[in-house]
Design a protein that fits this description.
The chain has 15 helices and eleven strands. With 393 residues, the protein is of the alpha/beta class.
């Protein structure tokens, strides 16, 4: 079975055509080697889970890696401190049971299993001591990786959990703890809304000020895309101007991983055949398909714009008024727009990050405007038909 382009879930080099991310993995590994704690916060469908999966494999030669995810944890996990700690232990035990984390002592395996049981009396202090025990008994430095931390947004216990990890980091010279902790999600931890006390409005608060800023560029460059296309071309023995096609794909996507892979997937699976699909006309057809389809990326965009009206207004101003908005790291809407992958900072001016987003947003706003105008016209016609000189008919 030949390789395919993949836009759903984790990508594997032996199954999927992928951009070579080895250089990025080496940069991230350096952060781990230096004992850094950090958050890999990037936009939705930006390759975070794939990167973490490949990173875990690379680190496993020198480290004992516990790679867990908060995805689908459910509200029951956050009912109280004990429920949360039991669930974390359950996630850790799964990695041990399926031998994803390398060898651990039988005592660690058994303790982890017991602490995950529904009647186990486990709190953050006990969990903290268990973490120290894992690190003390391991024959290698231990790394903790947690994917989908956004799922814990708004949960008080998650803030306490971060505080516990921070405390262990601060005492790392005298007490065994993780060499590195990597959290991954769309939001930077300092942007998670946490309710500090009952009845209070959600606030932006986090004890995660120990974290190193994550600056690794996870966008695909034109050369990244070209390398992927050259592998594909050689495998299928195709005639393709990979330089031209890579540049065209980059021009439309800005290197956004999902959009790049989706264009390639559509071209590969096109009924018109590869001789047509990997031309200018074929790529334009794939772009048109993306602009007209419903997918999780655009569905999420709609929710984000509803939730953050100031970002929605900023995008409208850029698109319809040609407004040049100066970049400010202190502006909340700008910060969120860049975090979601919708905005770029180009020489101090905020711009929409790629042509596909620009067109999709333009079509969205234009459609809303036309519908509002049609409703207004209808109301006006109705009023003219039934009201004349102040007299209703």
């Amino acid at each position: 079975m030949r390789k395919r382009f993949n836009v759903n879930g984790v990508c594997y080099p032996d199954e999927h055509y992928m951009v070579n991310i080895n250089s990025r993995l080496e940069i991230i590994k350096t952060l781990v080697d230096e004992g850094k704690y950090f958050v890999m916060n990037r936009a939705r469908q930006y390759g975070k889970t794939t990167t973490l999966t490949m990173l875990a494999r690379r680190l496993s030669q020198a480290y004992q890696v516990f790679f867990i995810s908060f995805e689908g944890l459910g509200d029951a996990a956050y009912i109280d401190e004990k429920a949360f700690c039991r669930r974390v232990c359950g996630l850790l035990y799964d990695t041990i049971y399926y031998e994803e984390t390398g060898s651990v002592t039988e005592q660690i395996r058994e303790t982890c299993c017991q602490m995950s049981q529904k009647d186990a009396e486990v709190d953050l202090r006990i969990l903290s001591n268990f973490f120290s025990r894992i690190c003390m008994e391991s024959d290698r430095p231990v790394v903790l990786m947690i994917d989908e931390v956004d799922q814990a947004s708004g949960q008080d216990i998650f803030l306490s959990f971060l505080g516990m990890l921070r405390d262990k980091y601060m005492k790392r010279r005298s007490r065994p703890t993780f060499r590195s902790v990597i959290l991954a999600g769309v939001y930077d931890i300092k942007n998670l809304k946490i309710k500090i006390r009952k009845g209070e409005e959600p606030q932006y608060n986090s004890p995660w000020n120990i974290a190193e800023k994550f600056t690794v560029d996870m966008r695909f460059s034109k050369n990244d895309i070209r390398g992927m296309l050259e592998e594909y071309r050689d495998d299928l023995n195709l005639e393709m101007d990979t330089e031209y096609i890579a540049q065209m794909i980059y021009d439309y996507t800005g290197g956004y991983p999902f959009l790049t892979s989706r264009i390639c997937q559509l071209a590969d699976e096109s009924e018109s055949g590869h001789a047509v699909s990997w031309t200018k006309e074929g790529i334009l057809k794939a772009v048109k398909t993306i602009l007209e389809e419903k997918n999780t990326l655009f569905d999420d965009m709609g929710k984000k714009l509803t939730d953050v009206p100031e970002l929605d207004q900023m995008l409208r101003s850029i698109l319809f008024n040609g407004k040049k908005i100066p970049y400010s790291p202190d502006d909340h809407a700008t910060e969120l727009g860049m975090m979601f992958g919708y905005l770029n900072n180009e020489e101090g001016i905020v711009t929409i990050s790629n042509r596909i987003f620009e067109t999709r947003l333009y079509n969205r706003y234009l459609s809303e405007s036309v519908k509002k105008s049609a409703i207004a016209d209808e109301a006006s016609i109705g009023k003219n038909q039934f009201v004349a000189d102040g007299v209703s008919f």
